[in-house]
Amino acid sequence: GAGVSQTPSNKVTEKGKYVELRCDPISGHTALYWYRQSLGQGPEFLIYFQGTGAADDSGLPNDRFFAVRPEGSVSTLKIQRTERGDSAVYLCASSLNGNQPQHFGDGTRLSIL
Amino acid sequence: GQQLNQSPQSMFIQEGEDVSMNCTSSSIFNTWLWYKQDPGEGPVLLIALYKAGELTSNGRLTAQFGITRKDSFLNISASIPSDVGIYFCAGQPGAQKLVFGQGTRLTINP
C-alpha cells in the first residue's frame, strides 16, 4: 500500500495477556518508529529502528515491552503481562531514512480490561 | 525529559477567521514539524522546517522555525470546516525521535 499500515486497528484483551501489534511501513523506508498516544495527549516515543536494529529504545517504559524488525521492513511491538495502564493508541511511523519526515499509520487502539 | 509547550490548548473560531498557534521548548531542536490528527486516524504531516528562521507555506498554512531554535508557530488563513482537528507540533532534537506538544484542538463554527 501507499501508506503505513497497522494491524489490528483495535485490540481488546484482558489484563495479564500477551499482545502483538504489527506495522508495515511505506515501501523503501529504512527508518521505523513506534509511539504511544494516551487520550488527550501527543504521541510519546517508544523505539526507533534503522534497518533491522533498534537504534534507540529509550522510550520503552519497562521490560514488558519489546519490538522487533527482523527483515528491516515489517515490525512487531510485543507487550507481555499487559496492564490496564497499557491502554492507549499505539502509532507506527516510517521515514525514508532517519533524517526525513516521519509518516504515521492510523494506529492500533489497545484496550486492556 | 524534553517538553514542548503548545498553546492554545483549544480554539473556537468562526469560519473564515485566521488561526495562530505556537510551540516553545526548553531545548534546541534541529527540525520542527507540524501534524494534524483527525479522530481515529494517525497524525498527517503538514509542514516540516529544517533551518532556524525558515518560513514555509503549504496552501493556507504557514509555519516558521524560530531563530532561537526553541520555538515554532503555525498560522492558518481563512479557516474552512475541514480544518477542524487537533494540531500537533513536534521537535526533532537530532536523535531521530520526535517530541510532541500536547496539541491544539481547533473547532470551527460555520
Verbal overview:
The complex is a heterodimer of chains A (113) and B (110). By secondary structure, chain A is mostly beta strands. Chain A has strands at residues 5-7, 10-13, 19-24, 31-37, 44-50, 53-56, 65-68, 75-79, 88-95, 103-104, 108-112. The relative contact order of chain A is 0.33. In chain B, strand 9 (85-92) and strand 10 (99-100) form a beta hairpin. The model of chain B has no long low-confidence stretch (mean pLDDT 94). Chain B is 0% helix and 55% strand. In chain B, strands 2, 4, 5, 9, 10 and 11 form a six-stranded mixed β-sheet that branches. A five-stranded antiparallel β-sheet of chain B has the order 1-3-8-7-6, with no helix packed on it. The relative contact order of chain B is 0.34. Chain B is globular. The interface between A and B is medium-sized, with 26 and 22 residues.
Can I get a quick summary?
The complex is a heterodimer of chains A (113) and B (110). Chain A is mostly beta strands and 113 residues long.
Provide tags for this entry.
heterodimer, A: 113 residues, mainly beta, seven-stranded mixed beta sheet, four-stranded antiparallel beta sheet, globular, B: mainly beta, six-stranded mixed beta sheet, five-stranded antiparallel beta sheet, 11 strands
Secondary structure: elements and pairs:
The complex is a heterodimer of chains A (113) and B (110).
Chain A: E1 5-7, E2 10-13, E3 19-24, E4 31-37, E5 44-50, E6 53-56, E7 65-68, E8 75-79, E9 88-95, E10 103-104, E11 108-112
Parallel strand pairs in A: 2-11
Antiparallel strand pairs in A: 1-3, 3-8, 4-5, 4-9, 5-6, 7-8, 9-10, 9-11
Chain B: E1 4-7, E2 10-14, E3 19-25, E4 31-37, E5 44-49, E6 55-58, E7 61-65, E8 71-76, E9 85-92, E10 99-100, E11 104-109
Parallel strand pairs in B: 2-11
Antiparallel strand pairs in B: 1-3, 3-8, 4-5, 4-9, 6-7, 7-8, 9-10, 9-11
